[in-house]
Amino acid sequence: MPFRGKRSRKTTTINLLLGFIEPSSGSAFINQLNVHENIKATKRFLAYIPENLMLYPNLTAIENLDYFSGIAGKKLSKSQLVDFLEESGLQSDAFEKRISSFSKGMRQKVGIAIALAKDAKVLLLDEPTSGLDPKASNEFGLLLQKLRTKGVATLMATHDLFRAKEVATHIGIMNGGQLKQELVAADITLQELEKAYLNTMEYKELVL
Amino acid sequence: MIFNTFLKETKELMREGRVRIAFFIVVLLLGIAVWISARQYQNVNEQYESATATERGLWDNQGEKNPHSAAHYGTYAFKPKYPLSLVDQGVDKYAGTSIFLEAHKRNEAQFSAATDQTGLARFGDLTPDFILLFIIPLLIVLLGYNSFTKEREMGTLTLLKSQGISNWKWMLGKWTALFLPIFTITLLLFLFAGILLSSLKDFGVFNWGSLFMMLLVFTIYYMIFTNIVLLISAMTKKSGISLVISLCVWIVTCLAAPKAASNIAESKHPYPTRQEFAANVLKDKKEGLDGHNPWSKEAKLLEQEVLKEHGVDSLHQLPFNFDAYRMQKGEEHEAEVYFKHYNYLKDQYTKQSKVYRSLAAISPYLPTRFLSMSIAHTDYATHWDFADAAEEYRIATQKFLNDNFAQNSEYGNWRYQADAEFWKTLPKFEYDPPELNAILSRNSSNLWIMGVWLSASFGFLAISIKKI
């Protein structure tokens, strides 16, 4: 269920779910656990891919995956690591290459592999498709759909209406930190979604 | 998690060009420094052996001679070079290596290496202690300044946090990754030095215990630096700023603080100038008995005292040569004067050392330097020790000679000559530097200060890491 809208505070929302910032009021819950009270425990379910996912440039894809899943407390064999990278759709000749030569799309695939390796139940994505070429964006969409079939709940913040309609089950439109509209992706067309989005934005401008 | 982070940090370090170059340079410098020092050590030791043997030969073979002439002829006490000076040269370069022992006069140690060199010697030598004390801390700064800031700058910090990282274990991993390569270099150097020293012939008082203690001192020094550099990296936001602050700390700790400490110590407890010192000694000497002057007031007094004591009324009736007896009494007076004035110098030195020790709290460099020099027997205290031992030997030698003179001749007989074999009966000069235990108890405050530095810096690091 993607969100969108400039200055909509979607990154803030994600940070709240990650426990990076404290809520000024109310609380965020993951798996019925209050995030703020269970910062370490809720992290176990979470995987997060920031807008510009940065990995260690001097390490290879496998080494990065190994390190980050090690931090999450997983000990994986080389063949398991390779399996996760394959599952994330990274071309196999890049496994042993250093991240410094990777494009954003490739780094995100490693990010997905990290999420897979962690066996995350919740995936938080912040603008994952911005700056991706259409093919990479399409691959990423397919990957998210595959994760959905595995039972991973995904929260994706994006401006990409097309990708949102494509991969989401539920779409919420946020503005100024508030959820303005909630839509079921299957019930609307892309045109209707765009209209709803523009209406919400205009509403904001009217208020201003 | 600790081991993971350690492995990852090590891999990252090894793949960075600057790290490889820095490491290569340090190892190369160390290799050269050890090689040069080992050769110098061997050289000096050979010189010491041959000088000691030659000088003793001259003394033993001076033939029939009046003992007091022999006293003026004199002999030398040579300061041996200690094996661990291979690692830490200390003040050896500036302290003299030999003391001329003669009648009536306490001489300063002469022939320091620095006097044989040009003004360039002031810029310092490439010695292992220079690298151990200055360059390796700099290496720690260069390797560790961006340990935490790079995670912030690269953006990997958010991903790490979302993976539920434990800051404490993360820090320990980074700490180990920074410290272990440094420790490996140090360990290799000390092992190398140990093997080199134990393979040399006549390696003197070398023992592995002292070497191990020195290794421990430097290990603690580097641990403190590792803590400080990581602390700065954890507390700053940008790598550049972290680097600048770390370098400032290095400059203050290794360069500014020691110089400031010696300036403060010197100005608080100044030494007298050489002229003052000589004038004071001369003045006091004149106030007492002069062995060569039988007509002075003190000489007459001594004469009457001795006559009364032996119940005779002429010096000729004494069972010994009164001239030699007076000579010995004069010698004793002079020795006392020297003792007093040198004690004053020593007092000033002790006070200066105390100032140093109290200032050691401002920089971990100071206690490290003092401990390492002491253990290597290249500090100023050992030099004092040696000079005192030489003076004691000088006094004993004078008594040995004067007694022979007094017992084997009668009053007024200055033509008496001792047997050519007599000189060989003079015991040899032996000097044993203080044992490791004595050195450590003398430096206990330095050990304490290092302990406080170590635990405080680690404590601050542990606190700062929670806020990342």
Automatic annotation (TrEMBL), chain B:
<dbReference type="Pfam" id="PF12698">
    <property type="entry name" value="ABC2_membrane_3"/>
</dbReference>
<keyword id="KW-1133">Transmembrane helix</keyword>
<dbReference type="GO" id="GO:0140359">
    <property type="term" value="F:ABC-type transporter activity"/>
</dbReference>
<feature type="transmembrane region" description="Helical">
    <location>
        <begin position="175"/>
        <end position="197"/>
    </location>
</feature>
<feature type="transmembrane region" description="Helical">
    <location>
        <begin position="21"/>
        <end position="38"/>
    </location>
</feature>
<feature type="transmembrane region" description="Helical">
    <location>
        <begin position="447"/>
        <end position="465"/>
    </location>
</feature>
<keyword id="KW-0812">Transmembrane</keyword>
<dbReference type="InterPro" id="IPR013525">
    <property type="entry name" value="ABC2_TM"/>
</dbReference>
<keyword id="KW-0472">Membrane</keyword>
<feature type="transmembrane region" description="Helical">
    <location>
        <begin position="209"/>
        <end position="232"/>
    </location>
</feature>
<dbReference type="InterPro" id="IPR021913">
    <property type="entry name" value="DUF3526"/>
</dbReference>
<protein>
    <submittedName>
        <fullName>ABC-2 type transport system permease protein</fullName>
    </submittedName>
</protein>
<feature type="domain" description="ABC-2 type transporter transmembrane">
    <location>
        <begin position="128"/>
        <end position="255"/>
    </location>
</feature>
<feature type="transmembrane region" description="Helical">
    <location>
        <begin position="239"/>
        <end position="258"/>
    </location>
</feature>
<dbReference type="GO" id="GO:0005886">
    <property type="term" value="C:plasma membrane"/>
</dbReference>
<feature type="transmembrane region" description="Helical">
    <location>
        <begin position="130"/>
        <end position="148"/>
    </location>
</feature>
<dbReference type="Pfam" id="PF12040">
    <property type="entry name" value="DUF3526"/>
</dbReference>
